[in-house]
TrEMBL record:
Xref: Pfam families: polyprenyl_synt (PF00348)
Alphabetized UniProt keyword annotations: Magnesium, Metal-binding, Transferase
Cofactor dependence: Mg(2+)
Family, as annotated: Belongs to the FPP/GGPP synthase family.
InterPro entries with a match to the protein in the record: Isoprenoid_synthase_dom_sf (IPR008949), Polyprenyl_synt (IPR000092), Polyprenyl_synt_CS (IPR033749)
EC number(s) given by UniProt: 2.5.1.-
GO molecular function: transferase activity
Name of the protein this chain belongs to: Polyprenyl synthetase family protein
EC category: transferase
Annotated source species: Amnibacterium endophyticum
Length: 371
């Protein structure tokens, strides 16, 4: 089994153990509360574990010598702490997904009903009184909050297992900064969807890039790397190299997401085709398209983007308009440029060779993914 496969298994096991312990607490509160645990477990069952992987390789990049069996060497006493921290990042990501789906009024996540829609169905199936949609929204907010609480609990438990207390404090500082960055970034995304008529067209691409930097790029790759490296006691030079790799790769990661949100295969992405168009996402892709469109076509895009009643023909028309603008090719070039910047940062970086190889492979897989 590959290192990535073994890590995924360890993270899955740690999450199951953690959720089992919390289920007993929920059961003591009420049998009704167990639904929150069940939905959490379902949400965490899927995913590529990118954040967990980057956390692990951030730690491995600054620890030990190359070509060791990092999972079989009992002397690696900090490994349980690293696996726990990586698992906490997966809990945090799950919380972000729940809240993001609520903000976007998304119906699906990974091919399944979004959590708040599942709570709506629970309301109807159990014949509760009141409005099912409001119940779903309220319960979804609470579940997202609970996952945030749990991510902090698991992270704190994991830091207690770390031998070096200075490294634990450094990792905690990175974790705290990540949470502020992504929350502020999510707010910037909400602002971008509401304030776009007041943004100078010359600033649209830069504004959209700032949104994805804080909403996604940092917390998806840069922050997990920095947290893992902090757990291992990274030097300033090592941390700088990982950040120089992680940030451009995180931007490439989100730019690929933006393309998939408009053109992705729904059977692969688990989201409806053109979902970002229906949700009205003011992405870099849209900003690049608007910069090249004639006034009439730009007006049409602005009128249709974010209309929840968009039908298949209208989605297809928007897709064709975006393609015709050249925005897809420009976004692909930006992805390639950012991946190249990330890979250049690894060249000669003061990191273990095994980690440089693994991070390079992850960069390539992120740049060409289809979901």
């Amino acid at each position: 089994m590959t290192t990535g496969g073994r890590l995924v298994d360890l993270v899955r096991s740690r999450l199951d153990e953690f959720l089992d312990a919390r289920a007993s607490i929920l059961a003591a509160v009420s049998g009704d509360a167990l639904t929150m645990g069940d939905f959490s477990r379902d949400l965490l069952r899927f995913g590529k574990r990118y954040r967990a992987r980057f956390c692990y390789w951030g730690w491995q990049a600054v620890q030990g010598t190359d070509a060791q069996d990092w999972f079989g060497d009992d002397s690696r006493r900090d490994l349980p702490a690293v696996v726990g921290a990586a698992s906490a990042l997966e809990l945090f990501h799950a919380a972000a997904l729940v809240h993001d789906d609520l903000i976007d009024a998304s119906d699906t996540r990974r091919g399944q009903p979004a959590v708040h829609r599942r709570f709506e169905a629970e309301h109807r199936d159990r014949r509760f009184v009141g409005d099912a949609e409001r119940f779903g929204t309220s319960a979804g907010i609470l579940l997202g909050d609970l996952l945030l609480v749990w991510s902090d609990e698991l992270f704190a438990e994991s830091l207690e297992q770390l031998a070096d207390r200075g490294n634990a404090r450094a990792a905690r500082a990175e974790f705290n900064r990540m949470r502020t960055d992504v929350t502020a970034g999510q707010y910037l995304d909400v602002v971008a969807e509401a304030a776009w008529p007041h943004v100078d067209e010359r600033d649209e691409v830069a504004t959209a890039l700032n949104v994805i930097t804080y909403k996604s790029a940092k917390y998806s790759i840069e922050a997990p790397l920095a947290i893992g490296a902090s757990l291992g006691g990274a030097s300033l030079a090592q941390m700088a190299a990982l950040r120089e790799f992680g940030l451009p790769l995180g931007i490439a990661f989100q730019l690929r997401d933006d393309l998939l949100g408009v053109f992705g295969d729904s059977e692969v992405t688990g989201k409806p085709a053109g979902d970002d168009l229906i949700e009205g996402k003011r992405t870099v892709l849209i900003a690049l398209a608007r910069a090249e469109l004639p006034v009439s076509a730009k007006r049409t895009v602005d009128e249709l983007l974010g209309d929840p009643e968009l039908d298949g023909d209208q989605v297809q028309a928007l897709q064709e308009t975006i393609r015709a603008s050249g925005a897809v090719e420009r976004t692909e070039r930006m992805i390639a440029e950012h991946v190249d910047r990330a890979l250049d940062a690894l060249d000669g970086a003061p990191l273990t060779a095994d980690a440089r190889d693994a991070l390079g492979r992850l960069a390539e897989s992120i740049s060409v993914r289809t979901s």
